């Protein structure tokens, strides 16, 4: 089941933000995240804030969801009325499975965002989708509505791996959906892979990489399987039905991904993400990683504006009830200190191909950076130029490098 939200301090009933947070809204970019919490079934590894029909209970439904999101958007407009963002540069609709909503509903939500704050002329608008949840017709509707990018959850090309993950699509459907998205006119298409699933062979992953490359997409995300407590996959491992993932295997898979994707013309720009061109990089995720502002719409969605982070109540029924009563759906929030923001900047920027300026580090962090350089985890030419940039070996040990830089 979905993880428990942190508590934080209470969010005011009207959702208002401190005046200090409103001084420079969007100075480092402004985006909108829309969470769609519905899934046809729950994958065995998933602990996201998503719900199948049987898990929803009464008081929430897909049919009225777009209107509920638009109600939160109206609240957001009131909160930022005195200092609205200059424009919305990125929109990302995630889930769950956003494309379980009718394409017309997703179009209405995007139109609502445009009417509220205005989409930039070159705005990146992404929706996630499961391969079986889109059709050529729905994709054309989304593209006509202004969606420019789609991210498809492929995970693997091997039927056995998909079965272990409890994925519903058949092997080959993801690449077929990618072709349909290109035919519909999407500017950018991403395929997501998961590696290190129990039972996955070296050949399975090589085949998955081969199919991704042959699909002609311009972006690939590849993540090691993480087994979260409370998931069906974790329970199977505790019972001994499946082995736990191997760190050594995960490292081998990552090296295989880097080799295959770089040979095919992709370049890494974040530890788990590769793009064919700079224009194909996910600008919305870069907004997160570089400290921009965004408003998160939907149950459990997180937002960040001017050093204030807050998160909505988790369940769709409670979320809808709060908005129907005219109050903020915010569950809790935290005001980030300058040091909090510096620490997050180090943690996130280090994962980017551009790295981070060494002068972001304090004295102890600089000692850690010297040590990481000595171990071959940071690139020497960049280091001499005043930046901490991960080497390939450093990318494999990125979390350890972060610990060195933030002792």
From TrEMBL:
It is found in: Cytoplasm. CDD domains: Radical_SAM. The keyword Metal-binding applies. Its main location: cytoplasm. Residues 24-267 form the Radical SAM core domain. The keyword Signal does not apply. Pfam families: Radical_SAM. It comes from the Bacteria. Keywords: 4Fe-4S, Chaperone, Cytoplasm, Heme, Iron, Iron-sulfur, Metal-binding, S-adenosyl-L-methionine. PROSITE patterns: RADICAL_SAM. Belongs to the anaerobic coproporphyrinogen-III oxidase family. HemW subfamily. NCBIfam families: hemN_rel. Probably acts as a heme chaperone, transferring heme to an unknown acceptor. Binds one molecule of heme per monomer, possibly covalently. Binds 1 [4Fe-4S] cluster. The cluster is coordinated with 3 cysteines and an exchangeable S-adenosyl-L-methionine. This is Heme chaperone HemW. It comes from Micromonospora sonneratiae. The gene is hemW.
């Amino acid at each position: 089941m979905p993880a428990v939200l942190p508590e934080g301090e209470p969010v005011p009933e009207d959702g208002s933000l401190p005046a200090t947070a409103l001084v420079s809204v969007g100075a480092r970019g402004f985006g909108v995240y829309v969470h769609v919490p519905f899934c046809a079934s729950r994958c065995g590894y998933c602990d996201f804030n998503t719900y199948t029909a049987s898990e929803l209970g009464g008081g929430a439904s897909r049919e009225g969801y777009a209107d509920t999101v638009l109600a939160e958007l109206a609240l957001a407009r009131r909160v930022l009325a005195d200092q609205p963002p200059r424009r919305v540069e990125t929109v990302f609709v995630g889930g769950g499975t956003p494309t379980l909503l009718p394409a017309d509903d997703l179009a209405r939500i995007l139109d609502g965002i445009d009417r509220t704050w205005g989409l930039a002329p070159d705005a990146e608008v992404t929706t996630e989708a499961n391969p079986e949840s889109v059709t050529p017709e729905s994709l054309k509707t989304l593209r006509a509505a202004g969606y420019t990018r789609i991210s498809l959850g492929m995970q693997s090309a091997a039927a056995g791996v998909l079965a272990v993950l409890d994925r519903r699509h058949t092997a080959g459907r993801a690449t077929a959906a990618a072709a349909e998205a290109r035919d519909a006119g999407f500017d950018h298409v991403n395929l997501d892979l998961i590696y290190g699933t129990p039972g996955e062979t070296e050949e399975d992953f090589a085949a998955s990489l081969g199919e991704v490359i042959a699909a002609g997409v311009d972006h690939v995300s590849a993540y090691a399987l993480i087994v979260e407590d409370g998931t069906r996959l974790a329970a199977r491992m505790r019972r001994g039905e499946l082995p736990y993932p191997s760190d050594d295997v995960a490292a081998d898979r990552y090296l295989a991904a880097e080799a295959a994707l770089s040979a095919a013309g992709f370049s890494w720009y974040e530890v788990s993400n590769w793009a064919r061109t700079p224009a194909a990089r996910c600008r919305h995720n870069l907004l997160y990683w570089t400290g921009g502002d965004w408003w998160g719409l939907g149950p459990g969605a997180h937002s960040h504006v001017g050093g204030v982070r807050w998160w909505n109540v988790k369940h769709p029924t409670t979320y809808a009830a709060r908005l129907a009563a005219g109050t903020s759906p915010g569950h809790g929030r935290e005001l980030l200190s300058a040091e909090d923001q510096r620490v997050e900047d180090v943690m996130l920027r280090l994962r980017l191909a551009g790295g981070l300026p060494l002068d972001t580090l304090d004295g102890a962090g600089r000692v850690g950076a010297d040590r990481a350089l000595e171990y071959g985890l940071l690139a020497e030419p960049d280091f001499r130029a005043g930046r901490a940039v991960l080497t390939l070996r450093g990318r494999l040990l990125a979390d350890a490098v972060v610990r060195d830089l933030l002792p």
